[in-house]
Design goal:
about 280 residues; alpha/beta; Rossmann fold; six-stranded mixed beta sheet; four-stranded antiparallel beta sheet; 10 helices; binds adenosine-5'-diphosphate; binds magnesium ion
């Protein structure tokens, strides 16, 4: 569990009241692959209980940024803050311990295992936690019961938690992976194009689950190319262009056309984004 915001020992930004610190923030992140600049300057702030959409053209740097936040890749420069305090995410395990769960398109579910076994999969990284030691002692029945509770709480509909996930649809599998985040008490869920491979009905199921995550004290960053979808589930949208975050919009105060303009560059970057870039030393 995180300390509550009011108990945070250090806040990086003394100006902000403790409770106002974003749950997760990336500041001026940079990442190169050899000569390729994948991220030139990216800053995002995820607020508590919000769904933040991250958009941009192919190659804009979205996946690279998410991988940095989930410890799969390291940034060359920049800072990451958790509830206002800088953290160093060097490995995927660091991210998980910080309460960050990433749901990949390739979900890493084990086909031959049942739904509830899959929900419990991946507990190894938490083996240091006393809670987990408790879980290790509980029996199958308790695992099934808890899985059922989490899936019900999220209104995830699957045929049975006892059958193997092999025959399950992409949407059901995606929902199972999200449920896993709740079960392990993660407070931040990162999703990279969660509905890209899904049909219409399945997509709706996954979107419902994402939308409801905030009720479970979870904040979400989601990358999607589907603007209509994002406008439905996101509170704010951050736009990346050519490796830079160029603007953030509150969904209820914007329109798809504005977001598309920001993505393509037809609408320029926000002045404050430009200023920050020019005035902030590398
Ligand atoms: N492992 C890698 N090696 C080399 N180049 C990479 C690697 N990952 C991403 N890139 C490059 O970084 C840029 C950003 O990629 P990515 O973050 O995947 O963008 P997006 O998810 O927005 O489509 C692209 O030019 C891509 O080719
Ligand atoms: Mg991508």
């Amino acid at each position: 569990m995180h300390p509550t915001a009011s108990l945070s020992p250090v806040t990086a930004s003394p100006v902000a009241a403790a409770g106002d610190a974003p749950v997760l923030e990336a500041q001026h992140v940079e990442r190169r692959f050899g000569a390729v600049v994948a991220i030139a300057d990216a800053s995002v702030a995820l607020r508590r209980h919000e769904v933040l959409g991250l958009v941009g053209d192919n190659g804009a740097g979205k996946s690279t940024l998410l991988k940095i936040l989930s410890g799969v890749l390291q940034a060359d420069a920049g800072r990451i803050l958790l509830e206002g305090s800088e953290i160093h995410i060097r490995r995927a395990q660091d991210a998980m311990e910080a309460g960050i769960e990433t749901v990949y398109q390739d979900l890493a579910l084990v086909d031959t295992m049942s739904a509830y076994q899959n929900v419990y999969l991946g507990r190894e990284p938490l083996a240091k936690s006393p809670l987990l030691r408790l879980f290790n002692l509980v029996d199958d029945r308790a695992m099934r019961k808890r899985s059922r509770e989490v899936l019900d709480a999220l209104s995830v509909k699957i045929p049975s938690i006892n059958v193997s996930v092999k025959g399950m649809s992409g949407g059901q599998r995606q929902c199972l992976a999200i449920a896993r985040a709740i079960l392990w008490g993660r407070k931040i869920v990162i999703l990279d194009e969660p509905t890209a491979a899904l049909g219409v009905r399945e997509t709706a199921q996954v979107l419902d689950v994402i939308r409801d995550l905030r009720k479970h004290d979870v904040s979400v960053i989601v990358v999607s190319h589907n603007m209509a979808q994002l406008m439905e589930i996101a509170d704010r949208i951050t736009v990346m262009r050519l490796g830079r975050t160029v603007a953030t919009r509150v969904v209820k105060d914007t329109q798809v056309s504005e977001i598309v303009g920001l993505i393509t560059g037809a609408i320029g970057a926000d002045p404050e984004e430009e200023t920050r870039r020019v005035t902030t030393p590398a």
